[in-house]
Amino acid sequence: MTQKLTLEHAKELDRSDNLARFRNEFYIKDDHYYMDGNSLGLLSKRAEKALYTSLEDWKEHGIDGWMDGVEPWFYYSEKLGSMTAPLIGAKQEEVIVTGSITTNLHQLIATFYQPHGHRTKILADELTFPSDIYAIQSQLELKGYNYEENLVQVKSRDGYTLLEEDIIDAMKDDIALILLPSVLYRSGQLLNMKRLTEEAHKRGIIIGFDLAHSIGALPHDLHEDGVDFAVWCNYKYLNSGPGGVGGLFVHERHYGKRPGLSGWFGSRKDKQFDMEHVLTPAESAGAFQIGTPHILSSAPLLGSLELFEEAGIQTLREKSLSLTRFMMDLLNQELPEHGFIICNPAEDDRRGGHISLQHEEAARICKALKANNVTPDFRSPNVIRLAPVALYSSYEDVWNTIRILKKIMENEEYKQFENTRNVVA
Ligand SMILES: *Cc1c(COP(=O)(O)O)cnc(C)c1O
Questions:
Q1: Distance between CA atoms of residues 373 and 409, nearest Å
Q2: Residue 1 in this model has a pLDDT that exceeds 80
């Protein structure tokens, strides 16, 4: 950084931003700085319209909406899967929109965790999101294995990030399956999925990734990298709304594998209504669906994915890196004191879409930010996550966020609040 960054500088960056027009596609409140699109993305007008279209189809067609609607519900999950595929470098049939992260993990661990001989363990990491760990624990127990012995969690050396060398060292010959995040939910560290997949496969281990914090924020190459499976939610960077249906990827080399948890929506589409008691699974990722798709919780994604198609994930990633770079530079310039530690990796190829700030007063600093029209996100015990989102955040938003944070620290406004988390934090 050579020259001092100013508001004028932020405005200049906004004027030359070739994605700036997408901001108008979203419902954004004036004088409100939303930095939490990595937890729940904002509503777009396209997503709203897609939801209304499904409601209209129901109003107009009743049961016949399954085949005769503007967007026939019977093929909805497949259509959304094929629209998602370019975001993760997958073939269209390798992707299906279904379930949630946690239910999809249950499905895919039930499918791919096949302990045999001394290969009985599952490898994860100690920084992973709790729900992923709960799913692993119950899948181990369902197969009759004690999870205290059979769940191996790679340790973090600094409490925020993982060393890929440590993960690779833990790929021992008693590991049957590996589950890792693409981007760590707290520190925003991006792992090298290609490298980890190659190392796992050299050792004959199945590997899957949780893309919760990378899908919609950065490009992926799941097919080329040879990743076995992946899961994600669509309500974070993909803006599909609260509780929006999630998605999964299964590499084509696994087509035909019997789902661990079967249900009639995993059928080959032309066979499903034969009503036989022997399942004929779809020869695609569709086989891993279970029951009737949740159309009204999927519909907003259709409108949202149109925006991603128009913007292009590579262009979005470039802007995202530039926004988070601008935020880090501003933090260093404006808040060198006040005890903040930036704990996301600084390098472009090692950070995801959010900035992660550690501070011992993090909980109440977040409350003070909210009282000042900034929406951050707090992760217990001491992390503030700030996600300027390429589709709808401006550089001026970033500038204002840091300006307000500085005011809160200088005036000690955070001291008016208790340093404890809220029920939902
Ligand atoms: C958001 C998130 C979840 C949430 O799982 P759901 O089943 O969608 O509630 C799980 N894992 C990670 C890593 C997440 O970031």
A1: 15
A2: no
